[in-house]
Structure prediction request, 212 residues.
Amino acid sequence: MRSKFDEQLEQLNHELISMGGLCENAIAMSAKALTDHNKVLASKVPELVLEIDQKERDIETMCMKLLLQQQPVAKDLRVISSALKMVTDMERIGDNSGDIAEIVCVADFQNEDDLPNIHDMALITIQMVTKSVDAFVKRDIALAREVVATDDVVDRFFTDIKHELINRIKEGNTNGETTLDLLMIVKYFERIGDHAVNIAQWVIFSITGVKE
Prediction:
């Protein structure tokens, strides 16, 4: 019975890795669409978001079966309940990536100067998502805490870019609507970082029983 349960837990890990990969792709595609002014690429992101939504439903079903059929002990129960929490944050990461792509599809960034640091901010948020899922699979508390600490870096990116955008508006050398679109985009990246932190904190809880 235990070997069957362990096999199902391993399958759960694979599904979480797969969902994490979809989230990474969605963020990366949205970021590239933004920096390349590529509306065609942005229009493909909703397909990934739908895959992420389906993956969330599949994992939730898997977790419920494990809970109902296997009667897990306390440690396993923490793992399964944490997985349920994690997929909710992953689904929201997908939604935020879709929101970014939606703005890219309708906004006009062609005449906008390159926005400093937005590409770096996107890369860091992608890394945070990757590391948070890896931390769950590897049961790595140190890696999870690294993700939590990285949130300060993303927050600084957001603050710096926000101030630059505000200064552009004050100086009157930018289109106000375009600037607001960019502000929304960096806010979505900041939220993605927050969701990655939530995932990392659930990883820590699944191992220690304490949500830091």
